[in-house]
């Protein structure tokens, strides 16, 4: 479990929507059972090239179909998993499913020019085994490390920067792509861009859905900075075609939002890929 002590700063934990402590305990128990029973699934949201609308990849987003409570969003169960010992297995489950789903899609279409992106939690980064575990999952799925992107938020880096840098560097050296997620929220993260081996910035939707000239300037500067650092830029939560065109003009590579597609189950991805990449079939 976690190595960090009791006095950690925890600025990014989302507030619980559930009310009392008993509720949290109940959810924790249920979550443990759900992992065993495989009630957790992945929904995949397309990430598209802003230049031509073509699919660049998919972000894997965890979903929990609770037998009694219905769908529980990750903003509720991820923090609970993080505070218990469940985030490790849960995160690895996501890597395992996402990479094997990607390989499965390719069996139907032939080789595809796409990646899968998986979110990692800070607690996972502090596990000394993470590197080996991810390597072995990639090996088992016969998935090229360059097809996998890992998304991390700043809280990951704050908790134990040296350990984080070590693990991230090793992962990056094997060819895995690393994205700084939710950029533009919380603490200023400019230092993180150079201190850690990120190759991708995901600009948070709160910055993307700009409604003032000032924010447009900030957005433009962030995209320019990322490009100057040779990083790929993804804009989250783009709300209109006009904004998409403007971001493309600024030099933003990718977009991910409901405008281009909501998170969908793996079999819907399969159908979409067959439609979008009809000519990649080799066998
Ligand atoms: P995130 O990594 O920033 O993922 C993007 C979130 O924005 C997703 O919410 C997605 O459904 C939502 N989104 C996408 N397009 C739009 C849009 O156009 N407008 C708006 N308003 N929202 C949009 P979701 O699936 O509820 O996930 C929330 C967060 O939960 C994720 O934020 C991520 O931090 C965390 N999460 C999800 N799956 C996992 C996982 O497997 N492991 C870990 N550690 N965290 C996860
Ligand atoms: Mg993400
Ligand atoms: Mg994000
Ligand atoms: Mg987010």
**Terminus-to-terminus distance:** 45 Å
User: What share of the residues does DSSP label as strand, in percent?
Assistant: 15-25%
Mean pLDDT: 87
The biggest sheet amounts to: 8 strands, mixed, barrel
| Hetero ligands | ligand C2E, magnesium ion
Individual helix count:
12
The total count of strands amounts to 9
Order of helices and strands: HEEEHHEHHEHHEHEHHEHEH
Basic shape: globular
Reading side by side through the largest sheet, how are the strands ordered? 1-2-4-5-6-7-8-9
The protein's oligomeric status is single chain
Catalogue the unreliable spans: 1-19
Q: Bin the helical content.
A: 40-55%
Class based on secondary structure composition and strand pairing:
alpha/beta
Structure overview:
The chain is α/β, with parallel strands linked by helices and 283 residues long. It is 47% helix and 19% strand. The protein contains twelve helices and nine strands. An eight-stranded mixed beta barrel has the order 1-2-4-5-6-7-8-9, surrounded by six helices. A hairpin with a 3-residue loop joins strand 2 (55-66) and strand 3 (70-72). The chain binds ligand C2E and magnesium ion (MG) (3 copies). Ligand C2E binds at residues 45, 61-62, 73-75, 78, 91, 94, 119-121, 151, 181-182, 205, 237, 256-258, 263. It comes from Rhizobium oryzicola.
